[in-house]
Amino acid sequence: MFFKIIRNHFFPGVIALIYHRVLETEIDSQLLCVPPENFEKQMRYLKDNFEILKVSELLKILKEKKVFQKGILITFDDGYADNFYFALPILERLKIPATFFVCSGNIDKNEEFWSHQLEQIFFLNKKLPDKLQFESNGKKYLFNTSNSQAIKKTYQELHKIIKSLNKKNRDNITNFLFEWSGVVKKTRKYYRTLSTDELKKMASFEYIEIGGHTVNHVLLSALNKTEQKEEIKENKKHLEKILNKKVITFSYPYGRKKDYNQDSLEIVKNNYQIVFSNFPGVIRNNSNIYELPRFLIRNWDIEIFKRKIRNFFISS
Q1: pTM of the entire structure?
Q2: Domains of the chain: residue spans and CATH
Q3: How confident is the model over 83-108, as pLDDT tens digits?
Q4: What is the phi/psi pair of residue 100, to 5°?
């Protein structure tokens, strides 16, 4: 305990923050949206109180085993269009570095991620059938959808089920759900993936770096090694073709330790120089460079945000 106190005081390390979306929205079922006004407050606080690093700068520090004093790394997962229209202008105005981990499967496609399609079906529809019944991978499912509480529970259960599927089975279920519900599939503004032009413009800014995040935002631990290779390597290849430069960093979709496995680690080691997970912890010079921890950021008001950041530095 005494060692930890001394270490945290003199060698506080680097904390990486995960954002997903910068958007004002009525429905945020996964609590991943931070409105632009609040995001700017959070960024101003970080800029005024910490040194904010690029991933490439962190890589150099870790390779040289340097000790760093209270560094911050800002990352975004998935690659939503709102990152370009709302987060990027704030980051550029404040000259704050950030890294965007992008899924490539929906680039230039006017389509929402499957989780937001579920939102459309269950939360943007005034009336659903009273029950939902279907079969997937040989297993039969029956859900009550007769009232708002049951609908919310069904949404949560379906999210868990669909999350573990490959893209083909995922699409089969979401297409069935649209048909079952009578909801017409649409793409809401800013809910799509970044376009090729947006990615190029984003990457042209001095403070911005782009990383990989698989082709289809899949649960890697649910795939075999060949499928994982395709998801990881094709994502990298696609991004490098768009950007015309090497992509050196990656983050695991979902990113908890159970969401990827030894095959995942082997593949990323052969393709990337620095890789991020999604479990809490401080990055120090002895951290595993292929499983770097990050802290998930919510839409906290600025005082709660300040307290969270202070606590993150002493959490491990």
Answers
A1: 0.94
A2: 1-109+189-311 (3.20.20.370), 115-181 (no CATH)
A3: 999 999 999 999 999 999 999 999 99
A4: -115, 115
